[in-house]
Design goal:
The complex is a heterodimer of chains A (140) and B (131).
Chain A: H1 2-30, E1 46-53, H2 57-60, E2 67-75, E3 81-84, E4 96-99, H3 104-136
Antiparallel strand pairs in A: 1-2, 3-4
Helix pairs in contact in A: 1-3
Chain B: H1 7-33, E1 43-46, H2 48-60, H3 67-70, E2 77-80, H4 95-127
Antiparallel strand pairs in B: 1-2
Helix pairs in contact in B: 1-4
The chains are: A alpha+beta (140), B mainly alpha (131).
């Protein structure tokens, strides 16, 4: 059972990580036009860094069931896009506005892969639950 | 060789099959969890060494009917899988492969479970004096 628990924990950690990815992608899309952040600069696109979490290994001994964890949420340091819009309040003296470095199609793709991965892990949890139910039937 | 009538040997074997199915399931779940982790390599639970070792033992001590039952609390090991195509981020987890592994393991588990509960039914039948 404890192994099945590890498996479910691994899948659950993935659900958590994928949810974070979706959240970050949504925040990126929502701020695609935010030219003023708390520091007065345009919004910088954020990226989730995932890392294998080997904390689950110890419990299972040899077999390496590794979950996943969000190692960091980093800001994308690519330069801001510049758009010519002299009437914009944040335009510089040449009439250019620094826009966030968000690429909406890219965010959509990130969101889709995250949501597919989420679904896959949900399916995995369903399959594990099948095993647990089966083993509970043994006493019948 | 009376192994075929040895309930405990058969039950132990079925138990091992279930344990292995669980280990496979767990490792595949770990792979799926790391579907998007850069540089993660697909792992697989391996039992070949254990099986070969057991075959050797059976050959050597074929007259000892307790050998199979008493040996092998088989500990699964994991190894990286060769020959899978890597994506650009160095990750080579394939969604369909892992889900297939999990489904297969679930089926293996169910089969062993069916056989084991049939065994239990027989025992209960005997305990209840055929009623």
């Amino acid at each position: 059972m404890s192994t099945l628990n590890n498996a479910i924990n691994a899948s659950a950690s993935a659900l958590n990580a994928e949810r974070t990815r979706i959240e970050v992608a949504v925040s990126n899309i929502a701020n695609a036009d935010s030219t003023r952040g708390p520091d007065g600069k345009p919004y910088r696109r954020r990226d989730v860094v995932l890392a294998a979490d080997h904390a689950f290994d110890a419990a299972l001994g040899q077999a390496g069931v590794s979950g996943v964890k969000v190692a960091a949420v980093v800001e994308d340091q690519t330069p801001f896009k510049r758009r010519y819009d002299p009437s914009h309040p944040d335009a510089d003296k040449d009439g250019f506005v620094a826009m966030p470095n968000v690429d909406t199609p890219e965010e959509m793709v990130n969101m889709m892969t995250a949501s597919r991965a989420y679904q896959a892990n949900l399916t995995a949890i369903g399959l594990i639950r099948e095993l647990v139910n089966k083993s509970l039937e043994l006493g019948k | 060789m009376s192994d075929i009538n040895n309930d405990s040997a058969i039950m132990a074997a079925l138990g091992r099959q279930m344990t292995q199915a669980v280990a496979k399931q767990a490792v595949a779940a770990g792979n799926l969890a790391n579907l998007d982790t850069p540089n993660y390599r697909t792992r697989e639970a391996t039992f070949d060494d254990v099986l070969n070792g057991e075959m050797q033992k059976v050959k050597m001590t074929i007259t000892d009917q307790h050998q199979i039952a008493s040996s092998a609390q088989s500990t699964p090991k994991t190894a990286e899988v060769d020959g899978l195509e890597s994506r650009r981020d160095g990750n080579n987890v394939q969604l369909d492969r892992e889900l297939l592994t999990m489904t297969k393991a679930a089926a293996d588990f169910a089969a062993a479970q069916q056989a084991l509960s049939a065994k239990f039914r027989l025992i209960r039948f005997a305990i209840n004096e055929g009623r």
